TrEMBL record:
Protein's name according to its UniProt entry: Alcohol dehydrogenase
Residues annotated as binding pyrroloquinoline quinone: E87, R136, T180
Cofactor binding, note field: Binds 1 PQQ group per subunit.
Signal peptide segment: 1-24
One GO CC term on file: membrane
SMART domains listed in its UniProt record: PQQ (SM00564)
Cofactor list: pyrroloquinoline quinone; Ca(2+)
Organism: Bradyrhizobium macuxiense
Length: 576
């Protein structure tokens, strides 16, 4: 089974909202979330998708470090009660943990003990088809939580009780519109982006008032007639051109700029939508107050490989070649490690290099940052074309991390995977998959003489040098990573169900723990009453499972019988 094959959720119900309550009752003494706290979060909290607006995935906590991590032990676990891919980091605000799971569920827990406060379950429509039944977490603002749902609504919950405060429809799930991301909350605006590029939608980013749920602005990722960039499309292709924006953006609080990644063009073969196809496979710089596009950078033009570039770039202040500058760092699905310069009105190309093997690009134009294509490895209509890496790319959505301690970027990469398909022209039917090929025709092939597949990499973005790597011989690496001031890198992502911690400087494996399932979700760390904890959701499924299914029988040792079922794992040092 491939990533794009159908996956029907077993969750059926009505379109109403339901909250249930655990014995512990509502949360007392909840700490309201303000702009000041989001812009400068306390070290012990994790209140944003990657902890901070810059998206670095870095924690300043160092109680757990390279010298004592060997003493890390589980202190509590919590079963979520649902199957499929658990992809959200636990969100912690002053001792309260919020866990988002597949099937529209949010659970509030005591972050110290694992005791349940309340549980919200959204009841989803009976006719909802969930291609990616998952969630990447909840946004926080004042005394509310914000959940983006797979039936394409944004829901505000009372943080203390789990009761729904407001519910706003974003688009129509019957047309293939849905959401899986954690909303980004900036100055009282709840910003989301939609999924659905596989269904021929027109992508967008939209903002809602945090108190009322009223839509404030909507910016389409594909320009209409009369808008800048429209001339990069032919005819009416722009109306169904994809460009979904299904991952959480990052935010520069100094320049008041949101950076949002945009997905692939639709359908896949580029010959079906001639032109550069702005703003697909790009990063957009948006004004959070109006949604206006300030500027952009397109990673690759006329996407034909399903290489979404939705993972927003990390904001890093760095020095390179003796120059200090504000950068955007993005290890791309297109196999290129991008280093860009962000300015108030322009994104400049600085450097780029392949971080996994690729036969698609011959190089990068030094002046423009435009990749130089090898046309023999670009899918077209009527011909089977093979390319490396596969459609899952050098790195899919699982996020990389940057350590302020080591100044290195840690990339959950997939090496030695190739793929291919035959382009086929089919009519667009709203709500049905529209890939430009048959799902059963999509190939995932190990590269000849491959000796490993998953690869945790450490790169110096200032020099372009790979500092270390850890190889996984019989598994892909499909999970986000996190770095800490204790010089640790936290990672799941493998089919052996292990959670691992590495030395951030050397790559040495320092600790590992078998969990109930595979880990796709982002690990995180927090502090309560002077004790540092490390937490992660274990729960295999969605694309990670599809990769395993596609490779089962092709590669010796590839195990696709990974048990599903979500469990929150929390660890702390054994002080005995």
């Amino acid at each position: 089974m491939t990533r794009k094959q159908l996956l029907l959720s077993g969750c059926v119900a009505f379109t109403c909202l339901v909250s249930t309550y655990a014995l512990a009752g509502p949360i007392e003494n909840y700490s309201p979330v303000t702009s000041a706290r989001l812009e400068n979060p306390e070290p012990g909290n994790w209140m944003l998708y990657r902890r901070t607006y810059d998206g670095q995935g870095y924690s300043p906590l160092d109680q757990i470090n390279t010298s004592n991590v060997k003493n890390l032990k589980p202190v509590w676990t919590f079963s979520t009660g649902v199957l499929e891919g658990h992809e959200a980091p636990p969100i912690v605000n002053n001792g309260v943990m919020f866990v988002a799971t597949p099937m529209g569920q949010v659970i509030a827990l005591n972050a110290k003990t694992g005791e349940e406060y309340w549980r919200y379950k959204r009841q989803l429509p009976e006719d909802l088809f969930q291609l990616h039944p998952t969630s990447r977490g909840v946004g926080l603002w004042e005394d509310k939580l914000y959940l983006a749902t797979t039936d394409d609504h944004v829901v505000a919950l009372d943080a203390k009780t789990g009761k729904a405060v407001w519910d706003t429809k974003v688009q129509d799930y019957r047309k293939g519109q849905y959401m899986t991301l954690m909303p980004l909350v900036v100055d009282g605006k709840v910003i989301v982006g939609g999924s659905g590029g596989e269904f021929g939608v027109r992508g967008y980013v939209a903002a809602y008032d945090a108190n009322s749920g009223k839509e404030l602005w909507r910016t389409f990722t594909i320009p209409a007639e009369g808008e800048p960039g429209h001339d990069t499309w032919s005819g009416d292709d722009w109306k169904s051109g994809g460009g979904s924006a299904w991952m959480t953006g990052t935010y520069d609080k100094d320049s008041k700029t949101v950076y949002w990644g945009v997905g692939n063009a639709a359908p896949w073969p580029g010959s079906m939508h001639p032109g550069d196809n702005l703003y697909t496979s790009s990063v957009l710089a948006l004004d959070p107050n109006t949604g206006k596009i300030k500027t952009h950078f397109q990673y690759h033009q006329n996407d034909s490989w399903d290489w979404d570039e939705v993972d927003a770039p990390m904001l890093v202040d760095m020095q390179r070649d003796g120059k200090s500058f504000k950068s955007l760092v993005h290890p791309g699905r297109d196999a290129i490690f991008w280093v860009l310069e962000r300015t108030p009105d322009k994104i400049n190309y600085v450097a780029g290099w392949p971080f996994v093997k690729t036969n698609v690009w011959k190089g990068i134009e030094a002046e423009t940052g435009r990749p130089i294509l090898d046309p023999d490895h670009k899918p077209v209509l009527g011909k089977r074309v093979e390319f490396c890496p596969s459609l899952w790319g050098g790195k899919d959505w699982p996020s990389a991390a940057y350590s302020q301690s080591t100044k290195l970027v840690y990339v959950p990469a997939n090496e030695n995977f190739c793929g291919g398909f035959t382009g086929e022209k089919t009519p667009l039917v709203p709500g049905q998959l529209w890939l430009g090929t048959k799902p059963e025709d999509i190939g995932l092939t190990p590269a000849p003489n491959a000796d490993h597949f998953g690869e945790l990499q450490a790169w110096d973005p200032a020099t372009g040098k790979k500092v270390w790597h850890h190889d996984f011989k019989t598994s892909q690496l499909f999970g986000a990573v996190t770095a800490t001031a204790g010089d640790l890198v936290l990672a799941g992502g493998t089919n052996d169900r292990n959670f691992r911690i590495f030395n951030a400087k050397t790559g040495e494996l320092l600790w590992e723990q078998k969990t109930n399932s595979g880990i796709m979700a982002m690990p995180m760390t927090y502090e309560v009453d002077g004790t540092q904890y490390i937490a992660v959701q274990s729960g295999w499924g969605v694309d990670a499972q599809r990769i395993q299914d596609a490779l089962a029988g092709k590669v010796a040792g590839f195990e696709n019988n990974v048990p599903q079922g979500g469990v929150v794992w929390v660890f702390a040092l054994d002080k005995k």
